[in-house]
């Protein structure tokens, strides 16, 4: 057999990423696990006056003041009503070589899943009722769709700061 006549498939190794999945209402979302720091039980938030409605307030996380964003409001949904499974997902994002810690209010955390890029569809240009730049992609797991958020866009420190400034004026 002539080895030169065989065509070799160039195989690109699959990149498998882990995503923390959670619920907001009846919708399923996910964030890259590498961007999440921890999940804490909801135990109250200190409200800050004159802030936009997506900013629910701040929490004290081991001596660090962490702003808490109602992810439902940020995504154009009704505010989250605090219930037994409501939690705060603490994320750490980098902006201009600085790390920023934010808390995200969610109805419930589901699980950590593993997905490769092959099983993630591009964000649809219509129908999701969320800004397209907020969505990294759509994953299908069993019979449900999980909207994988692009945390750097949905939680852009620069954009959130502009929204807070606009509210104060």
Automatic annotation (TrEMBL):
- Tell me the InterPro entries matching this sequence: CheW, CheW-like_dom_sf, CheW-lke_dom
Q: Which parts of the sequence belong to the CheW-like domain?
A: 16-160
> Known CDD domains for this protein?
CheW (cd00732)
Superkingdom of origin: Bacteria
Q: Which SMART domains match?
A: CheW
Q: What is the protein name for this chain?
A: Chemotaxis protein CheW
UniProt source species: Cellvibrio fontiphilus
Q: What is the lineage of its organism?
A: Bacteria, Pseudomonadati, Pseudomonadota, Gammaproteobacteria, Cellvibrionales
